Structure formats: structure tokens, C-alpha cells
Amino acid sequence: MIKKIKILHLEDTPTDAELIGIELKRSALLFDRLVVDNKADYLNALGQYEPDIILCDHSLPQFDSIEAFELLKQSDLNVPFILITATISEEFAVDIMKNGAADYLLKDRTQRLPSAITNALEKFRTEAERKRFLAETIANESLLKEAENIADIGSLDIDLQTQYAKWSPGLYRILGLDSSVVRPSLETFLEQVHPDDSARIEAEIDDALLNVDAINLNFRIKPSNDDKIKHLRAKLLIERDGQNEPKRIKGFTQDVTEQKLAEEKIQEASETQAAILNALPPNIVLINEKGKIIAVNESWKKLALFNNLGIPNYGVGYSYLAISETATAVDKVTTGKIEQGINDVISGRRKEFEMEYASVSGKDWFMIVVTPLASHMQKGAVILHINITDRKLAEASVKKSEANLRSVFEHIDLSVVLFDVDMNVVSYNSNANAALIRQFDKGPKVGKPITNYFPKDRRNSIRKAIAIAKKHHVAAYETSFLRNDGERDWFDIKWVGVFNEQNEIVGVILTFKNITEKKNIESERERMTADLAQRNKDLEQFTYIISHNLRAPVANIQGLAGLLGDLQPGEPESMTTLDALSVSVNNLDKVILDLNQILQVRSQVNDQIERVSLPEMLDEIRTGISQMIEKNKATLIGDFEALNELYTLKSYLYSIFQNLVINGIKYRRADIDPIITVSAKLTADKMLICFKDNGRGIDLEKYGSHLFGLYKRFDWSVEGKGVGLFMVKMQVESLGGTISVKSKVNVGSEFTLEFPLSVKWNP
After folding, report:
1. What is the dihedral of CA 322, 328, 329, 330, to 10 degrees?
2. DSSP 3-state assignment of 340?
3. Which residues carry this modification: 4-aspartylphosphate (predicted)?
4. Among candidates 503, 427, 493, which has minimal Cα distance to 472?
5. Using CA atoms, how far apart are residues 372 and 348, in angstroms rounded to an integer?
6. pLDDT of the residue at 549
7. Phi/psi zone of residue 711: left (φ > 0), alpha (ψ -120 to 50 degrees), beta?
8. Residues 635-672 pLDDT 10s
9. Long-range contacts for 300-306 (Cβ within 8 Å, ≥24 apart)?
10. How, if at all, do strands 635-639 and 675-682 pair?
11. pLDDT tens across 246-295, in order?
12. Is 736 helix (H, G, I), strand (E, B) or coil?
């Protein structure tokens, strides 16, 4: 059935449209025509009518043929466009034809319209066929190229008579050659063959050209753009003429490098596996699904010879159970379990069977391991038969040693924890468990890291100690921990590395012992030693006082008393002597009072310890010396934000504060009002209380060594006895602290008291 041609005719003059219709009817064309006269109907017809060809008048009221042609190109249609117009310039006709129009006709020459339509449709059909063929060709070539890339193959076609040759892109790629540079030929192909294979390949091709129609080649090449050797496989087909002479070679070449390497690896792995099996001490046997031996290793062969089994070919082809029962002398119960285990593995009911058993005599031990035979050819099992007598004896010895070690482990007075190389707990004794629970409310857990047991502020130092232990050194030190009840425990710690025969670290041992009692005894001994030393110094000082300060008044009193014996009462000289005697007695009384005060310092050390608020104490002192502060226009500043209280002997601390504050005011500079700042702060291991003033200062190079001596004075412009700083030093040391001073003349002084952290908490 002939299909009608669908014609879309764009014409706004009805008579012109009628004339075109008459001309079409006169022709032999089988057609259907739709006439439209405006843009909207034209656009609708492009989408709905789907014409095979368009006839278009050039001049229209709303738009012209150029716009109509553009609208066609913008649509999905690809049909001929013929321009029919009254008049047209030659230049315009050329332009519209270049733009893609199929043809143009003048309205007074429409006789050519049917042939113009036929020619246009045939031209479009031919062009469409050409484009389709080209697209299919490109697609096929692309598919072929894709296939070559995927399969790593390339083809060749060589005319031996004309020497014309053609290589596919895949062959160029495999050979590592540039198609734009290299001319394809049989000689060029052979030139790429590896020198070690070249002579053989040329001989095989020459022989094939004489005798056969097809040949398979395996050879190597070394592409110029690659350092790696490639393995190739080629199949060549030889076409012959009527005289049986070779005229053409066709074929393909495949890069089989990866396959070759895989085969080599498989071969190497197979040889390696065989070598490994033969080198392994266990007796290894491969059996089929019926339990018959199909292969054995060297160890099994030696077993067969040693036991003089008298079975040909080391038992291959015989029942494994029968031979094994004879060789190992096992009982029937054990034999039954082994047989059941082997059957379970072969049938797939179990992935593996393993069993240890003793010989009938009980002297020897064996272990059997059965796994499935990894073969696609047949079912079966791989059986490892291992003599574990030495291991069993060693295990028994180790268990005995472990029991002895555990006994020692539990009865020593040390707490011991064992760790692996990653510092996870491996074992510990009861002492360590009790100590860690007492200290941290949790005991050690096997498999958990040790660092989790320590406070975060200690973990860095713990890691450093472990690092030392892992370098063949013992990390030993003493440390203390504050318990939840406020008491402080002291421990003697040791970290010791454990190394194997290759000098590789395999673990770490931690030992620790509570030495709190020892530390308390040492502390008490040190305190008593210090107290004795201080008392010795005091006695030396008292000797000085007695020899100097007491002796002078007493001598005066003795001399004056002698004078009074020679004088008569009422005489003027007698009165003068009595006055001098009174002064000497008063001086003696002052010295005795100073000695009494010094002795009281020692006697008050054991008085009640209490919480002392530093801001409140400073306020009490400020109130007590308010007149002195007001008179000297002094400023007293307290900074206790970091530390505002401590537990100590209040009377001592009050005396210390008062003496240092008063000194800061007494030894003021004449040109500036005194400012005394008292501050307190905490450091990592102690507490500091500082007294800073802007007074006259002290020449420490000149007086520093005697600054805290009794009756030592360096500034006689202010009334004093040289007892204050001596008392301050005694009281600070009695409280367990130390005092130091920094000073610069006419700048000021700074006294710093240092106390241990224990003073911060209520003991």
C-alpha cells in the first residue's frame, strides 16, 4: 500500500492556494494537503498534522517564509521546505537554499511543483539513509573499539601480494605504537616481538605460510612506551589462491599478560603450598569422600617408614582410619569419634573437626585436625595428625610453674599487676586488687587499660614511666594519692619491662607498696631532727643572750651593789647609783621577757589547730593598729581570691601577719605613703603568702645573712629591739613553712611564706 504524502501549505491568498491544488491534482502524486494562512495554525499543524513536506508563500500578513522556516527548524520535524513566491531575487534564493530550504518556485511556473516535491522527498530520504548508515557505522566501530578494549585484543589484515596492511586501534594500543606515525605491516609487527622470542615466532610463521591455514602464537613484547614485558597470544588465518599460495593473513592478537601472571602465581602458589606441606612437621593426609588416602606429605612418609607399616606407596589408595589406628595405637572409642568427625566434615555437617587424644599406653598424645578438601573435582578432607606429647608435658610443667608462681604471687607483700605490650591488664594479685579498690573504689579488670585507673592529671607521668620501662630501664619513684576520706597514702612504685629472647617488649610489670607508715615515721624523724637542730640553735642563741645580754646587766648590778655598800644613804652619789641600778634591773627584765616569749613559741606548737580566714585576720590586724595606720597614712590591701583560708595555729599566724605589716609601716620612706599588700595563692605543690611594701628596703648583700637573727638591727632611726623578724622566722618554721625575702633599697621589700599543701585541709 502506497502511503499518501502529507503536504502542509502556508498561503494567505485563496486563489493562489487553489491554483497550487489544481497543479498537484494533475500530477500522479498521492497526497493529502492542509492549507493554513497564519502563524498560529502553522505552529499547530507542525505539531498535530506532522507533514512530510511544507510549501510556503514568501510574503504573509503576520510573518514571512524566513520566520516560517526557522520555526520548522526549531520543531522536532525534519522535512523538506519548498518556497513558492510571486517574485524573488536571485541573492535571496541562494541564501535560503544555503540555509537548508529544499527548493523554490515562482507562482507563474508551478508546473515543476510535483517533480520538485518528489525530488525533495527523495533527497531527504537519501540523506536520512546516509546519516543512519553513518551513525550505525560509527556505533559499530565504537562498539568494536569498546570490545577490543574490554577483551584487550586487536586485529590485523595483511595482503601479502600488495603488501597493504590494516591494524585495528586495539592492536596499536597493545603494541604501544602511534597509528599516526607507524605504518602497519607484517615486518613492523614482527619487529615488536621480544628479542628472546623473535626467531621462534618468525620460524613458526614461515612454517605456517608453507603448510597450514591457521596458527596459534604465544610470545612476548616490550612496548617502547612501557618498561614492562607484555605476554601476547595471537591467532592467524592464512588465505590461499588457486595455486595454494598464501595471499592474505588475517587474525587477532590478545594481551594475556594478566592471565599469564595469574597462571605463574598459581603455579608458584602450588609449588609453594607443596613445599610448605612437605616442610610442616604434622603428618598431612588428603582423603576422598570414601576415606581413602589420595595424597600425603613428607612427614607422613617418614611416619610410615618409622612404624614399618608395610603398606605400598605410603598408604595412598588405602583407608586412612585403618592405617592411623595401627600407627598411633588408639582405642576403639577414640577411633569411632575420629571417624564420625571426618564423616561430618566431608558431608558438610561441620566446618572443622579437632580432637586431642592419648595413645593406649598413655605415654603419647596426639591431635587431629580435619578440614574440607578445597577442590571442585571431588569431596574429601585434609587431615593433620600432630604428635603433641612434648606440648602436653610442657603444659603440665607450665601449669605446675604457674601454680607455684601464683602462690608466690599471692603471698608477697607487694601489689603486682601484669600488662601486655598495649598496657592492658593481664593478671594481678589480691594485694593489687585490694589496694586499687581502697584507693580508687574499683579493682583492675583483665583486658582493660591501666591508665583508666589513675586521675587525669597523673596519666601523662604514668605514660612517661611506662615509656622508660619499655626501654630496658626500671622506672622507680615514690608518690602519694589523696583518699576520699582526706588522708594521704604514699606508695613505692616500680615499672619493669618484660622482654622476649629477641629483645622485644612483650609486657610490663607494675609493683607498688603502701609506705605511708614508713613515710610518716620518716617525716616524724625529720621533724624531730629539725626540732633538735632548731633547739640546738636556740641553745646557742640563748648562750649568746646569756653571755652578752644577761651578763652585762648582771655585772652592772654587781658593781652598783658594791658601790652602794661604800656609800651612805642620802648622799647624791648614792641616788645616782640607785638610778643606774634601776636601769640595769629593767634591762635585765626585758631580756628575761624576750627569753620567755621565745620559749613560749616552742611551747605553743601543740596548741589547737583551727580554720583561719585570712581576710578576717587581716581585718582584725587593721582594726588593732588603726591609729598607727591613720597616723602614717598607710594603705593595707588584701588579695585572697586564690586562697582565703587554711588550717593552722591562729596565734602564730596572727603574730606573723602583725609583725610583717607593722614593719612595713615602721620602715616607711619619708617621701611616700606606705602601701602594704598581703596576697595568697596556690601552686602545684605548696601555698604562698606574700607581704609586699614600698618602704625603705634592706641592703641584702650587706645584712642578708643576719636578717632573721635575734637582736639584729640595721636601721636605728626607728625604735626596736631586733626581735620581730627572729620571732616571725621561728613561728613560720614551727608551722612547717619557710620564709624568704626580696628587697631593694628605697624601693621596698617582699616577704614570702611557703607552706605545704597539707595546711590547706583540715587534718
Report:
1. -80
2. helix
3. 57
4. 503
5. 8
6. 54
7. left
8. 999 999 998 888 888 888 888 898 899 888 888 998 99
9. 300/385, 303/327, 303/385
10. parallel
11. 989 988 898 888 888 877 776 776 566 566 666 666 778 888 888 888 88
12. coil
By the 8 A CB rule, do 475 and 494 touch? yes
Q: Which amino acid is at 435?
A: A
**How large is the angle between the packed helices 724-734 and 572-603, nearest 10 degrees?**
20
**Three-state DSSP state, 447:** coil
Placement of cell 518528489 in the chain: 118
Q: What is the DSSP string of 554-603?
A: HHHHHHHHHHHHHSPTT-HHHHHHHHHHHHHHHHHHHHHHHHHHHHHHHH
Q: Distance of alpha carbon 697 from its chain centroid, rounded?
A: 58
Q: How far apart are CA 221 and CA 189, in angstroms?
A: 10
CA 545 to chain centre: 72
Q: Grid coordinates standing for 317?
A: 589408595
Question: What DSSP line would sit under 149-168, residue for residue?
Answer: HHHTEEEEEEETTT--EEE-
Q: What is the pTM of this model?
A: 0.31
How far is residue 64's CA from residue 83's CA, in Å, rounded to a whole number? 11
Residue 141, all three cell numbers: 566501530
Pairwise CA distance, residues 299 & 314, whole Å: 11
CB 14 within 8 A of CB 61: no
Q: CA 351 to CA 592: how far, in whole Å?
A: 101
CB atoms within 10 A of CB 369: 17
How do 365-372 and 353-358 pair as beta strands? Answer: antiparallel
What pLDDT sits at residue 156? 86
Burial 460-496 (b: 16+ CB within 10 A, else e): eebeebbeebbeeeebeeeeeeeeeeeeebbbbbbbe
Taking only the tens place, the pLDDT of each residue in 211-226 is: 888 899 898 987 666 6
Tell me the C-alpha to C-alpha distance, in Å, between residue 621 and each of 637, 642, 662.
Answer: 12, 21, 10
Residue ranges with strand state E in 571-726: 610-613, 635-639, 645-648, 675-682, 686-693
Listing from the earlier edge strand, what are the strands of the sheet with 103-106? 31-36, 5-10, 53-57, 81-85, 103-106
d(CA 492, CA 518): 10
Please say if the pLDDT value at position 8 is more than 80.
yes
- Does residue 728 contact residue 740 with C-beta atoms inside 8 Å? no
Q: ∠ at Cα 199 (198, 204), nearest 5°?
A: 100
Beta bridge partners of 635: 675
What spatial distance separates the first Cα and last Cα of the chain, rounded to whole Å? 119
Please tell me which of 143-147, 205-209, 219-223 the model is most confident about, judged by mean pLDDT: 205-209
Q: 200 in helix, strand or coil?
A: helix
pLDDT of residue 226: 61
Percentage of the chain lying above the pLDDT 90 cut: 9
Partners of residue 372 on adjacent β-strands = 381
